[in-house]
Design goal:
Helix content: 55-70%
Shape: rod-shaped
Structural class: mainly alpha
Radius of gyration: 40 Å
Strand content: under 5%
Number of strands: 3
Amino acid sequence: MCNVDCCCKNLSPDGLIKFLLTFTAINLILSIVSIFIRAANTGRYDQALEYLEARNNGTFVVVQYTDCKKSGFFKDEDYCKIEGEYLKKPSKDVNNQGLFKKWKTVEIILSILRTAITVVFLAMIYFVFKNKAKNFGNMDEEQKEKYVGNLTYLLIFTSFMIFLSGLYILIRALAINANQDIGLYDDSQQNSFESNIAVNYIIDIIEIVLYGIEICFIIRLKREIVTKYPTPAIIQVPKSRDQIINVPRQDPPQQEIMIQQVRVTQQIVNVQNIHPLDAYD
């Protein structure tokens, strides 16, 4: 997904953590903004529901339109003259009707749900990295393994946030497809429903990009903990008595010389202490 050395190459672990918190805070703000930019709150959505109801109860009949032209944002949609003005040509069938009818509820649930999950993710990042940025070199092997495990959980959570934003893009596409099938909006400008959907598309894409960068930073943190902060070596001390006995012992040369000198001195003293009459025995 990314090259972990591609950006912010010289940042310290403390700097990487600050960026993680900052990017997640930005995504939280964007999630809150999306709550107030809802396509279901537009007049076009209410109008589309009326058209959809008319189609379903038979009061609106889809006819063959003859006076049509290509228009729209990409100039690839059919707009036909209806009651004196060019309106988006309705499709014969409207896809995703169930989703579109419940879009007012679905959209607010999606926005609030992502906001709540982002709050949890931000809190998770804070508590994982709290007071740890400057103590990586003081962790023992057990602490390091636990910390690397926490970073792995963050990677999984971050990947889930990317998946969630991608899922939102897909769901919005289904809703906007229903709006296009209903049609009957003018070609002078993009209708308000599609405009608000487009803004939320941008929010979704920004969140995907920021979470992708966060994945790079977390991978770098894992690598630095393992490679740049190795666990201090522990001197192995023999624990069993057999290990201690079997360790070869070499006396220093000077100590051996002193022992020999003491033995010679003791022999001389013993000879001097022999009585002359005892020497003949």
